[in-house]
Structure formats: C-alpha cells, structure tokens
Structures
1.
Amino acid sequence: MTTIIELLYKFDKYLTNKLQKNSFTSNLLITPTSKFITEILIIIFLSLISYEIIYWSGIYLKIWEYHAKDIFTEIPIHCAHININLNLVKGDKIDQLNEYYFEKQNQINFLNLLKQNSNKTKFQDLFEFSKFIKYYFEFSPDDFEMNKEPEFGSTILHLRKKILKLFNESEIYNDYNTNQINVNDVKIYNNLNHEVPIEENGNYLSKCNIETGNIIDVIIII
C-alpha cells in the first residue's frame, strides 16, 4: 500500500513539474480542484491509449480476437474491373510454367530478382507469344446477379468462362484453337502471383486476392 502511495506521489510531482513549464497548462493547477480534475483526465487518457495499443496489438499478433467479430463481419468489396495479361503455354511445359511463377512470387527478394533476371533465357521459349496480350474486363450485374451472394461479385469460374469465350472468338488464337480446350485449361494467377486452383472455381474473385483494378496473369494451356 505504501509503495502505491509513493508511486502516486512521484507521478503527481512529475506531472506538476511538466505542467508548470508551460503558461497555458500551469493555469490548470491554480486550485486544488482544477489540479485534481486535470490529473484524473490525464490518467484516464493515458489509460485509454495504453489499452488501445495493447488491445489492437494483440489482435494484430493474433493473441486474441476482435470482441465484436460476430457482429461486425468483414464483407469484401466485389471486384468491379480487372486487367489481365494473357498468354499461351503448351501442355508439356507445365513444370516450367510452375517454376516461372515460383520465381515470380519471390522476386521481391533482391537476390531472387537478380537470379530471375539472369535466367530470363531459361523461359524465353515457355510462352507462345513473346509478349503478354493485355485485356480489360469489367463486371456488370449480369456477371454476378445469378450467384447465391451477388454482393461478393463474380466467381473464378465465371472469369475462366469469359476468358475462354474471348479465346474462342478472337482471330488471334485461330492457329491454337483445337476446340478441346475447356475452362479448367484457363490458369488464373491472383495479385500475389499464386495460381487460383480449380477447387476455388465456385469462390468469388474478391476472396481469392483478385480485387478491383488489379493486373493479373492468365495462361491458357493448349
């Protein structure tokens, strides 16, 4: 008990010295009542700041969960439009394709970036086109109003179908179109350069790291 009183006395002395250094804050210490109210408000303010820092740090570090997570659920904003870079790869080059995207995922690392730049010749024959062909896709209500949860937007499967339709109808790909290519031959890579697996076909773009305005790669296996 004595220790607590001593700590409060030291805090009071320290706070008083700090407040008296400024002409504005020194006016808050004119009377015992104003001094008491000022110190109480400062203690409450510091307590709230400390609580918020500890509370949100714990959530960020996943030590505990947000107390109202069941009430205020996060709803991803549906993907309204995206840009895609499209290219073609032969079926016997899947392993090389996987290696290409494995290195692309790690290019943020400086050493891996140097390695990738030095190995560009390794992938020069991987793609059918020397440069990716760019397209812009916009999603209207017709692209997702049929879904169980239209507020989440379009699905991965729907995007695969749109890209396959583009492939089948474009004259650019006439020499590659064998009419045997299906939606699962359309490989979609999200904004992390990770392939979106077929198992996610029924999932929404916004839940697979494909968001409005993203530029993503799409590879059609021929």
Note: Residues 2-60 form one domain.
2.
Amino acid sequence: MANFNNPLGLLALTFLLPCVEHTRAVEEKSVFAGVGDAVTLPCLFNRSLWREGARMEWWNNSVSIMHQDFRDEGFTRRLYNNLNITGYGVKEGDFSLLISPVSYLDSGTFTCNHVNLSDKRTKLAEVKLVTAEVTSRGDPVKEGRETTLRCWIHGADGDVEWMRGHLSVGKGQVMRVSQMGITDGGKWTCVVSTMNKTRLTINHFINVYKPTVTPGKRVSNGTAVTFNCELSHPVPGVTFGWRHVTSDRDVTNQPSFTFTFVPEDAGKWMCVLYGESGRVITTISQTITEVKRQLNWLQVGIGIAVFVLLVMIIAMLLFWNKQRKKDARQNEIKTNETLNGGNIPENEEEEEVQYSTVHIKSITAEAVEDSEDTTEYATLKKR
C-alpha cells in the first residue's frame, strides 16, 4: 500500500495515476475586479495531462479567447491583448489567466478546459468575473458646481456604499453632490458588497478647482491683476499653462501669476491643464474687461465741498467789493458837506420857492383856465 505521508510517493502518483478530480463537477467561483486593475483566474491541472494531442483553452461565455496546443510547442493564441498566461506555465500544470488591465466588458463566466487527443473537453475551472467602475461627470469640477458619481457593476448585482475616509456618506450606485467645495475634492470610495460581504473597493479621485481673478474681472489700466488656477489636490504629472486667447499667445506655465493690466490684456484668458505626454485634461476660461477709472464717493464729496467753498468765496468777494464802493461814496458825500459848511446854493433855493408859489396859485385859482396856468409857469421859468 502506498505511503501517502511520503512526498516522493505523492509526486509519483501525480504522474502514474489519472487525474480523476477533473471528472467531478467544478464549482463556480466569483471574482470581483475594478476596471484598470489586474486579476488572475486560476486554472491548475495535473501536468501529466499535457502530452501529445493535448490542448488548453479559455472561454468567456461562448467565445474562445485563448488556447495553447501541445504540437505548437506552447505557443499561445489570444483574442485580446490584455490576456496572458501567468504562473508556472502549462508544462508545470498551470494555465492561469491574467487579465491586465481589466476593462468593464471583461465580465462574464470564464471556463478553463482541457481537450485530449480525441477532442474530449474537460472543464478544469469556472470563474465568474464581475467588473466594476467608478465614473464622475466633469473632472476637475469647478467649485460650486454639481457632479455625479456612479459605481457601475457589470456581471452581477451588488450593494454599493460610498465612503469618505472612514465615514459613510451615502448608499446606492449613484451619488450626487449638489455643490462641490474645495474640501470635497480627493478620494471617494465605492464599496461593493454581496450577501453582506465586501467584495470590492474602488477608489476614485475628484479634483476641484477654483479659478480666481483678483481684484475682479473688470479692471482699469495700471491695475495689478492675479490669475489663480490651482487644483484642490495636485496630480503628479499635471502641468499648467495660461494663454491669452484673444491675442493668441502663451503667457506662462505657472498656475498663478500676477501682471500689470494694460488695455491690450483685456479679453479671454484660458488656463490649460496638461496631463502626461502633453494631453489636454481640461481648459478653464476667464474673461476680463477694461473699465475707465471712476470717482469714488469720497472723491465726489470732496469735489462738491470744494465747489461750494469757491462759490462762497466769490460771493464774499463780490459783497465786499460792493460794500467798499458804497462806503467810499458815503465818505465822499460827507467830505463835500464838510467843505460847503452845510449851505444850500441861493439860486437853487430861489428857484424852489418860486416853483412852490406858482404851484400853489395853480391849485387855488380854480376859475383860471389850464392854458393860462401853463403859460404863467413857463414864464416864471424863463425869469
């Protein structure tokens, strides 16, 4: 009787005895993989099966995706470029399949078969591959804008929970964030579970940007203007470039820069984010316009006060000048009175008396006709 405790005995049985375990039903296993990851689907068999006329093959659902024939000296034919044989190789009884990177449509039921010389196909392994992917609308996301994260699961049903660090922030395949803040940037984790058991965690990074123009988008000539285009979470390999679209010129490759505004700087500016190998990730537009310098309220108040003060000064000067002339006239009259001794000339006094006498006569002599009164006044004036 063979000694199964002896490793050499077990090794001999591997070559001498047929591999009866492959005739039994193969249990299907489920494997979860995120898009972009690498996953290995195991297929181990007794290497004694690898002999003349043997053939190993992998199927995905009803499509043959890879096979290797004994007569081709181990040359492997594959349907897709992301498929490879890993492990020790068929000569050592290992036909495990490596899928790297995993794509969303790689999901399905994978079957590893052994085909003998008489074309009898024996199933050695069966693996159900479930793929998952997290996508977000708009990346990077402008601060204050809405974004939507989706955790897509292909090949099975599963429960989804969203995590931020160790904090659960929501459940369901769709996660909406109405207003993204700078602090909302960073890692979001989709946790896929089936039967209350965690199967897969997928990390997704979101960048939030806050483009700013200081002091504002309406500036005047000579104003210092600062453009800022930094991300909430810098990404390795990402570079920046500011471009003045209106004049079609590149200005700087820095995320932030300051310049003194001149009228030629007005128009559309664009911050361009470049990924590796110069790929454009996104463009962020800013527009600045030129405005003329405007008086502020303090300047307006000072102007009004100066105007009122000037009006008052002019009015005071006019009044002083008028008063000065009046005083000079009065002084002149007083001087003349002093020189004449206060006497009225005789001719003026006589003329006034004569006029008064004639005037009285004209009033009392009611019987005298108007023509006579007028003639007498004229006669007296000639005297």
Note: The first helix runs from residue 7 to 16.
3.
Amino acid sequence: MTSFVFVRLASILPYIKRCLLSSERRDSLKSIQTRLLNSTVVSINVCPSSTNVLSAYSSYVRPKGIFNKVLPNYFQTQQRNLLRHVRRPVPFNMAHHLYGQLIENHERIKPKNTEDGVSLLRRLATAGSPEEQIKTLSTSDIIMCLYAWREQTDLTSKTTSIVQSLYDDKKTRVTGRADANLLLQVELSKRVKEEDLETLFHCAHAAFSSRGRRLYFLTSFFDHILEEFDELSLTKSQFAKILFYIYYHGDAPERLLFNLQNYLSENMNSFDFNEVHVACLGFFRANKRINDYAILNALADRLLQNLNIVSGDALVSIMKTFRHSGFTKVSFFTELAERLTSMNLPNITSLNQVMHLAVAFGSLRLYHEAFLASLVSRSKQILCTTRSSVVRTKDLGRLVWALGTFCYKDEDFLLNTVVPVFTESLSRNVTVQYPESLVDVAVGMAYLGLYSDDIINAIFSSSTAAKLRGKDEVTDT
C-alpha cells in the first residue's frame, strides 16, 4: 500500500509543477486535493516525492482535511524535526559570564543608579494604558526601565515588586506575563532607524540585561545592521558584540552572517581568542557553517601557536566550529592531539570540554591512542571529584559514544564509573532531560561488547520512547 501511494504521488508531481505555471493553478491543485481525499489511503511515511508534493500544494492552497487524513505521519515527523532543531535558550548567568570575558568594562555602560528607572516602572504600573505611556518615553528612559526591570525581578517579595503589577493583566491590559517587558522592546524596535549605532548597542545590552523571555529588539537590531552594513565601520568590539547577541538569540539573517564571515576573514589575525571564542559560538548557535577554508585554516594555525593560553571553553567552541563547518585537515588534528597530550590537557577542567574534544575526533574517525587515554584519565579525575547528581548525562553519553567508535575499551571506566552515574540518574529520573544520552551510552558500549541491563531497559521504557518522539507523556497499555 505504501509503495503504491509513493508511486501515485510521484506520478502526479510533474502535473503539479505544470499547474503552478498556469493561470488556473489553484483550481488544479484543489482538484488534486479532492482526488486524494476520495482515495482509501489513510497513512504514508515521509519520502522525498511526498515532501515535494506537500511543498507545492501548501504554497498555494490552504491546508485542510487532506493533511489530517492522508499524511498524519508527515506532520508528526515534521513536528519531531522541529523539536530537535529548536535551540534551548542560553542560561542568562552563562551568557552574562561570557559577556564579562568579552568586554572588561561592560559594567560602565550600565547606570550606577536605577532609581529613575524604578520610578518610571512605577508610573507605568499605575498607568491606565501602559502601551500609550511607553510611546511618550525617550529612548534613554526605556533603557533605564529595562535595567531597572532586571533589579525588580530579583526582589524576593513578589507582593512589593513593581514588576508584578506590570504582570497583572487587569492593570496593564497586556496578555502574558512577560509582555510588559516586550512592550518596551517593541517601542525600541520602532526607533532603530532614528538612533546611532552606539545607542543601539546600549539598547541591545539593556534588553539582554532585563532577562526578558523574548528579546524582540534583537530581531529588529539585526535587520538594521544588515541594512546598513556596507555603510558601517564596525570595530572589533562591535563585531564581537553582534555575534554575542546572535549567540544569545540563536538566530540571525543569513545575509548578515555572510557579511560577518567576510569581516572575520579580513580581520582574522587582529582578534584575540575571547573574541574568536564568541564569534565561533555565534556562528554555531545560528547554525551557520563557515565555508571559507582560509578562515578555518588560519584559525587552526593560530590555535596551535597559542594552545597554552587558550581557555578550555574557547578551545571547545573552536572545535565545534571546525566540526560544524566540515574542517577535516588531518595534519592539524594529529598535531593538536600530540600537543594536548604532551601538555596534559591544559585548561580542560570539565566533562563537557572532554566530551567535545572526544566527539571532534570521533566524528572524523581520527584515532590517537595516547590522546584518548588522556581524555579518559581526565574524565576519571573529574568524575571522582564531582557529585554524580551534577554530572550532565548528555556529556557522558557522547563521550562513551566517541570511545565506542574507536573501539577504545576501558572496562573499569565504563562499568565502574559511567554505568553507576547513569543508574543513579535513572533512579532520580534525571535522564529525561537528555533521553538521547541513554542511546549514546548504550550504542558506544555495544561497540565494545559491553551491555547494561538498566540502561537497555530504560531505553525501551514507554517514557523514554515518548521523550525521543518529542512527546511529554505516554499512556502505558
């Protein structure tokens, strides 16, 4: 039945393409909808031809019953794919720490006293229509409100917090808890063309510092930077700030990323490694491959020359960029492994850093026995001094997967260190946050001929299966 449906869909694909060029394309596509709805097909799997049919159809006809009746599996699969590619938000404390490393004097742009911002927030909280009141504020006043917003959300007593009154829908006539913050950002977004570049950076930092759930302003900020990019004379600091906000936001216009890549190519040797670190994170989080081999090769050469001063986090972000961009220069990775081994893994202090190094080599199938032994030894040291309750199972699972791809077998580490961590995590139901880690560790150990009943049973449990499918709950039958 499934094969028959694939043939039927593929056979009408040329007809659909011809219809798209005709003046009666909508009527033709609707006739296809009627024909498919009258068929006996109830479910098919995703295939390239069916995806093309859906793309052509949905571009011109409002989706109705055909999608629910004919292609339920398609939409379930698309939903799971979307869930996989949605970026988890960056924790504010982590991003703030990174910003502190990037800009040593970043505190200077923040006001020492936010009393004016607090008074403005109080006025907004008592206003009948805060939307109209916000429009009357100057840009500097809105910035003050955003800085004061962060301090007010830190108050322990919610009853006395000014922000709580802004959250009250009855007083603000705004829907959603964070929409009052959003209103401030929306008003700033309307003024991007009126302000100079330095003021816009202040607006971006204020929006970031407010810890708003949605940084609406950054979208308009990126669009404006793209529109005026050729006219701007960006400094290194401004370039790094833009990529920091892209990293925090998780997305940016493709053309802007391309322009930033060209800027990086022209000024590669002038950046310090903190700026390079942020740039790599920005491109990686925005899912942008650096396709200029000269940039990657220059970055690799600089990394080898300054390996002793590069932080562990910066090294990891660079390795992630290499992996994401398809940089596979064997001589570089070989020399990197030898130097890191001889230097006893300098500045590698967390399991996450160890994991990313192992995965970088594992994904390229570049085997270096002494380097792998150093990574395992460092992992043992970290796990011996870290409570299992704070170990991220995702890091441990990917590390075991990488070791498995190399058939690097250390039974003591795997059976006496890794398995107990996962067993305890299962007892505390922690692995539900990263259900893929169970599959990673099971597959990695299977490569080595090792099996854990607890992990295998957990993988095939109904709750784990539901998480892997992108569902929150499942009903046992």
Note: The radius of gyration is 27 Å.
4.
Amino acid sequence: MTEADLMLLDGDPELVSDDLLQNFAWHQSGCFDEDEYRNAWRRLAYRVVQVLEDDPNIALAEGMMLARPLTWPEDERAALRAQLTDALRRAAGDEERWPALEALFQAAARLDESLTPWLRLVDTFPDEVVTYLAGSWASAVQCTTEGDYGYTLDWEDPTPGEEMREWLFRPALRDRLSEMDSEAAQDVYLQIDWFAEEFSTR
C-alpha cells in the first residue's frame, strides 16, 4: 500500500475507491499502528458494508475485529448496526442475493462479537429465507469436529459455534420448519434433527 493510498484512507471515505477499500480490508493491520487501524475502520466501516452488498466476500470484514469494534462510540456502532440490518433485509428480500447473506451476517456479528442479536433478526425473515440459512448453517457446523461456525470468528462465552448450535437446535426453529409446507423445509428439519442427535453423542 503506497503513501498516496494511506493518505486517501485517512481522508474523506467517499473518495476512497472500492478497489482501495478492498485492499485496505484485505491488508488488515500491517500498514497501521493499533490506534490508526481502529480509527481507519471507524471511518471506513460503512463503506466496507456498501462494497459487501455488491461483492459478498467474507474476507472483507475479517479485519474489523482487530479494530476492536466494541470500543467504538455507541452512536457509530448504532449507525453501522442499522446499515447492516438494512443490507441484510434487502438481501433477504431478493432470492438471487441470498448467497450474499453469509458475508453480511458475519460482518454484522463481528460488530457485536456475537451472533445472537443477528440470529434474532434472521428469525424475522420469511420462511423461505430461514429455511435457506438454517440448511446452510447446519451443513457448515455439522462438517466441523467441534460443531464450530465461522472459522475466522473468534470470541468466547459463548463461542460462535455454541451460539449457532443453540439457534439450530431450538424447538422453536424446528417447530417452524416442521409447519412449513415445502419439501426444502422438511429436508432441513430432518437434517437438523439428525445433527442434534448425532452431535449429542460426540
């Protein structure tokens, strides 16, 4: 990253190109000291979300946790939370954009270092979206030895895997899936039911 790039990143976020923003996000903290990196993320996070909507690459938000978002002013976090909520709702409302939900969801979870508030948002989505996400997440968690979720998500008490398994194994989700009149929902219901039983014996 050049000196000119660093000067642009230190200026008006609207003047930072998408390519430079992606370079910043992928570079993580190597070109900055700790405070500079945190402040850069505070300025640029809303632009990263804008890029994520068009280019749903999970890696774009990986650096956010290094910038310690729990230490950001609450008004900034609230604004970013609202932006991510709107982005997730837009993606949920367009079946062609459902694959973008994963990158947006993980970015949102990094902001709070918790899946739980964002899983509550998912609960408000239409049945078809919940079916899609539950099936995708069950498959992802099921394939790991410890039932983990999000290999670059890193927090404790509870861990991302524990939060995700709690959501997947809730009776409320399985009841909702079982009551849906779709083959896909029934398949996901059976998948989660089997996974819950299998995981309990690990």
Note: The radius of gyration is 18 Å.
